[in-house]
Amino acid sequence: MNFRRFSFEQVERECDKRKTVIGYSRKLRPRIKGGDFALEDFKVVRIYVAKKRPLSLLSRKEIIPKTIRGIATDVVAVGEIKAMDTSPSPGPGTGRLSSLMVGCSIGHKDITAGSMGRIVLKNGEPRILSNNHVLANVNQGIPGDKIYQPGPLDVREGIGVELSEVYECGVLDEFVPIVAKGNLVDAALAIPTKRSWFSRTTVGGISLGLLTEIEEPEIGAICEKHGRTTGRTSLRLLDDAAVIQVGFGPDDVREFVDQLMFQAADGNGAGIAGGDSGSLVYRSGIDGMVRNVGLIFAGSSTVALANKMANVVAAFSSPLSLDIPFFGEAVGDGEEEMLYEGVRVVKTIVIDPKSRRASELRVFIPERVEAGSVFDVSGNLLGAVDGTPLANRFIVVNGLSATTNDRGQFLIRLTAPTGVDLWDIVAEFAGD
């Protein structure tokens, strides 16, 4: 094999000649046999097609050469890649929430529904991150357009109509335009309209931790994602340098480069479905840290495509920060116990992200609250080591604020929402 004569520009030219080819890898890869990597020392040029057909049904111009400049080719069928599903199926993330969570249903006023990726910071201010085609309707959105939770498809009033303000979770901030060729990301940002929409990075009640770091995993690595339609699924990385043609509608195909390609970790399908667009892909390390990997934006019945998170954070008018826009990081899910009849107390140890000092936040919550009723949430903030009251600390509970007194106590009056499937009380406090 003469590697000196080989270049991926030659691969691109060969692929452009053939209408059956929808993509290729920009790195030499192991051959895939039976849905798994072949145990071979040498690597091949991987070329993607929607469907394999017998050579007898292909014209001479359609046949992919067995080698390109001395490097063997491996033709892999990945199905028809699409960015959107106009009518995604119901799923675990379609309900209305009191606070935004990773993978919940979300969408621009004129689309069906997609998934929220996560909360990020832009110039120090919180933003909702998802796909362009979820938050900006494929370049058609205008800054200030309303963003709903759940997405319009999951609200009874329907799509393309003015929904009740109770469903509004943000407004479109900016999007990265999707063009014909060379796209790195399908991404957009929205400005949250209420601080009460903030939630920690939790999936199904399990904390993902700080999620401040980015990982570019090795081929074959197992990652996870959480989306509106299929919930939490495990994915195996097939390619980290895919060039792929993605359909955005009839006769609307756009090229994406430097993409991540996954399949379900068990080898059974893609691990995603329509409505999962915008889902955060993440990976747990052996050190216990969970790291950002990418943002799902397209797929087929066979594979899932994701933008690299490093490309996403660099794509906007100001680079994004993945520092969580919260004041401390809870350790565990908190201990809940009955304080006395009708009142529960939740005790949580919280670590300040800068000083790493531990505090104990106690929140007293009525056991039963009627929808629409007014009720009090009280609590106190103490040093976790010595129990010293922490005075003059800024507390936020579901968007309403208070300051602790000299005994570390606070009281905030809330109104219970109506028509909510899942309702959280999110308490946060300012660090040192």
How does this structure look, described?
The protein is mainly beta. The chain has helices at residues 8-16, 132-135, 309-313, and strands at 21-25, 32-33, 36-37, 45-49, 67-68, 71-77, 105-108, 114-115, 118-122, 125-130, 146-148, 168-175, 188-192, 202-203, 206-207, 222-227, 231-249, 252-264, 280-284, 290-299, 304-308, 320-321, 329-340, 343-351, 358-366, 374-383, 394-397, 400-403, 409-415, 427-429. The chain has an eight-stranded antiparallel sheet. Strands 16-17-18-21-20-19 form a six-stranded antiparallel beta barrel. The chain is elongated, with a radius of gyration of 24 Å. Mean pLDDT is 82; it is low at 195-200 and 325-334.
List its traits.
eight-stranded antiparallel sheet, 3 helices, six-stranded antiparallel barrel, 432 residues, Thrombin, subunit H, Immunoglobulin-like, mainly beta, elongated, 3 domains
Put the structure in a nutshell.
The protein has helices at residues 8-16, 132-135, 309-313, and strands spanning 21-25, 32-33, 36-37, 45-49, 67-68, 71-77, 105-108, 114-115, 118-122, 125-130, 146-148, 168-175, 188-192, 202-203, 206-207, 222-227, 231-249, 252-264, 280-284, 290-299, 304-308, 320-321, 329-340, 343-351, 358-366, 374-383, 394-397, 400-403, 409-415, 427-429. By secondary structure, it is mostly beta strands.
